[in-house]
Specification:
This protein has three helices and four strands. By secondary structure, the chain is α+β, with helices and mostly antiparallel strands. The protein is elongated and about 95 Å long. 7% of the residues are buried.
């Protein structure tokens, strides 16, 4: 719309918890809305708001910057469980890396593999010896 000269200017307006953009189209001004709703889009950082204007809308000149209503107030967008969710995600990634390393070490082990039947027979002997020991202790 900028290239078609439908957008004649832009202003950045401060709000509690962020910044929004007002686009001048002809003689009217409209807030830049989000994709799925008609609510004005907001950015928490002025830098990211300006970067959006420059990179996405190709607007390099801002008509006005109004910070009179801006405050760093938390807008309630953060989820209370974010820290715990991220901790679990990091733990899962660390376990996955450890598990993959263990599997690869087993694959790379030069010792000969033990047949399944032989392992099962050895553990059956161990279980029988343990049962015998438990029965003797009673």
């Amino acid at each position: 719309m900028v290239e078609a000269q439908a957008i004649r200017g832009a202003s950045i307006i401060g709000q509690p918890g962020g910044w929004s953009i007002m686009l001048k189209m002809g003689m009217t001004e409209k807030p830049l809305g989000t994709q799925r709703t008609d609510k004005p889009r907001t950015w928490r950082s002025l830098d990211t708001c300006v970067a959006y204007l420059r990179n996405e809308l190709h607007i390099v000149r801002v008509d006005m910057l109004d910070a009179s209503n801006h405050s760093e107030a938390d807008t309630g967008r953060r989820r209370a469980d974010t820290a715990e969710r991220m901790k679990r995600a990091h733990e899962a990634a660390a376990y996955d890396a450890w598990f993959r390393a263990q599997v690869q070490a087993s694959i790379d082990d030069p010792r000969p593999s033990i047949p399944h039947e032989e392992v099962m027979a050895e553990f059956a002997e161990r279980r029988a010896a343990l049962r015998k020991k438990i029965d003797a202790a009673r």
